[in-house]
Amino acid sequence: MIELRQLEHTYADLPIRYPDWQVEDQGHALILGTSGSGKTTLLHLICGLLKPTAGEILFNGQSFAGLSTKKRDRFRGEHIGIVFQRPHLVKSLTVLENLKLAAYLSGKKVSSDKYLHVLEALQLGDLKKRKAHELSEGQAQRVSIARAVIHDPILLAADEPTASLDDANCSRVLHLLKQQASDRNATLLIATHDHRIKSSFTNQLVL
Amino acid sequence: MNLVFLSFRSIVFKPLSSLLSILLFGFGLAIILLILLVSTHLKNEINTNAQGVDLVIGAKGSPLQLILANVFHIDFPTGNIPLKDAAKLTRNRLIKSAIPLSLGDSYAGYRIVGTTTAYLTLYNATVAEGKWDESEMKAVIGWNVSQQLGLRLGDTFSSTHGLAEMGAGHEENPFEVTGILAPSGTVLDDLMLTTIGSVWHVHGHAEDHPAHNDSLHALVTIPHLGLQVTSEQLENEEITSLLIKYASPMAAIRLPQLVNKDSNFQAASPAFETARLFTLIGTGVDVMNVLGLVIIIISAISVFIALVNSLKERKYELAIMRSMGASRLHIFTHVLLEGMMLTIGGTFFGFVLAHAGFQSLGLISESMQTDGLFFVIQEIDVLIGSFAMGIISAIVPAVMAYRSDISKTLAKG
């Protein structure tokens, strides 16, 4: 599914070399590292938000390198769902509208049943008409997961999804992410410094 | 879900800031539009009233005053000219027709004009009720006059000397209303018309001499003025002015010269004098236009600031939208649409405000008949200009959004 080959990225004149690594199709993998170790950068590189300075990333055997910005945006929108450390929902929209926006931007048609199904699965059914800025942090986090999976991506990537959560919520979010990825036969990739979730992953890249 | 909806929700999410932008833009635009409407309306009125009058001949003085007093009836007359000389002058071949006017009296602020039926024909005016009566001390009054003063056929009124409402009265010689003009949209609507003889009669000249000298009372016809007077009147009486229509284009060059150089009269062209008047008014109009433009520019800046602030707050939202597959063009369009919607809202508000204002001008001022649905072709230019202003104020924020580095923004998170 994902293959790193002699990947290198230079940020502010500091080159980071990444070890070669592979994540198998539908696998669940972890990028582990302290802050500043380049794990977020690696996640961005894999998702095509950044271009590597050297080496390459193969995504299902295909490389991003040759694609134009527009084509990369399109590819990412269609095949990848990303959960960020902070939810950053679109404040002027409701929960349901945030999901609809995600579906619109991904370019995929999503049935109205699908929205309800995803909202239910993430215990958001009662909140669908709620404005994004009226949600609690935990609720907003779950909406951001719903938003990342609404278009059935083949890769679900998460950047520090559990960093600001207590133990109970941490394992709950982890469970939701794994479940959502499995439901879609999607690959799950988490970048984190959170050692609490280390034990649930066998494929780990430590930076 | 689409970008138009997203931009709209984003505007509604900040109602106060959006309202401020819309109000500022609307007010600026309304000032410019209102000036456009009023000045066009005035020009139309002036042109309607000056139609068919090529030249005005009257006593020496300010040419603009001569035009204002005798064509538009808004200034004081320059003085009078002897009927005898006027009759002689109008025999000139350069003149196709001449309408005599005799001004100076008024009733309740409305001017009484001694003239002939040719004055009605000039403006294609028709008598709605009653008729034009050639006998003395009969009056045909304009539509507005009858509406405002409630004068009906058969009513009488006494004129006052001068054009102010409080003048010395001519109570011993009341006029009788014998006709009411249909509304014509011209200056006639606000005038009271009578025969020239009646004006002389009011001023008591005709009665001065006992009727013993027949030669003085022999009737003389002045065909080119449409007047029939006694030879005594021809010798002694005066009129205020003549409204001239040229016989040929050549007259436009020769007649004014002839009158201004070789007679005691002055000739003034309504076209020339109103053009001069427009340049005088034009300065004031320019100042007001600049004011409107300044307000619009300030509002464009306010739209710009509102968008930049909103971008600062939403940079993560926009970056995440990019991560969800939005292209840079999507983000650019989204921000541009937001700016455009604010200016379109402001434009709509401005147009409604200007036309409502124009309509209510007519309610405030009796002499102005305005219709809020009066549209001018130049409003299209204003419309295009205001959309252009909207694009200009939104394009910089849109480019900023277009060029932002999503990875950097998201990493800071």
Query: Main β-sheet of chain A: number of strands, strand sense, barrel status?
Result: 5 strands, antiparallel
- The helix count of chain B comes to 15
The gross shape of chain A turns out to be globular
| Average predicted local confidence, pLDDT of chain A | 88
Class computed from helices, strands and strand pairing of chain B? alpha+beta
Seen as an oligomer or otherwise, the chain set is heterodimer
If you compute it from the alpha carbons, what radius of gyration of chain A comes out, rounded to the nearest whole angstrom? 17 Å
Regions with little confidence, pLDDT below 50 for 5+ residues of chain B: none
Strand content of chain A: 15-25%
Figure out the total of helices of chain A. Answer: 6
Helical amount of chain B: 55-70%
Judged by helices, strands and strand pairing, the structural class of chain A is alpha/beta
Percentage of β-strand residues of chain B: 15-25%
Major β-sheet annotation of chain B: 11 strands, mixed
Main interface: chain pair and counts: A-B, 34 and 27 residues
Describe this structure in words.
The complex is a heterodimer of chains A (207) and B (413). Chain A is an alpha/beta fold. Helices cover 34% and strands 24% of the residues of chain A. Chain A has helices spanning 39-46, 69-79, 95-106, 112-121, 137-149, 167-183; strands spanning 2-11, 14-17, 21-23, 28-32, 54-59, 62-63, 80-83, 155-159, 187-192, 203-206. In chain A, the strands form two sheets. In chain A, strands 1, 2, 3, 5 and 6 form a five-stranded antiparallel β-sheet that branches. A five-stranded parallel β-sheet of chain A has the order 7-8-9-4-10, with helices on both faces. In chain A, helix 5 (137-149) packs parallel to helix 6. The mean pLDDT of chain A is 88. Chain B is an alpha+beta fold and 413 residues long. Chain B is 55% helix and 17% strand. In chain B, the strands form three sheets. In chain B, strands 1, 3, 4, 5, 6, 7, 8, 9, 10, 14 and 15 form an eleven-stranded mixed β-sheet that branches. In chain B, strands 2-13 form a two-stranded antiparallel sheet. In chain B, helix 1 packs across helix 13 (328-364), helix 3 (63-72) packs across helix 11 (270-313) and helix 11 crosses helix 12. The mean pLDDT of chain B is 87. At the A-B interface, helix 1, helix 2 and helix 3 of A face helix 1, helix 12, helix 13 and helix 15 of B.
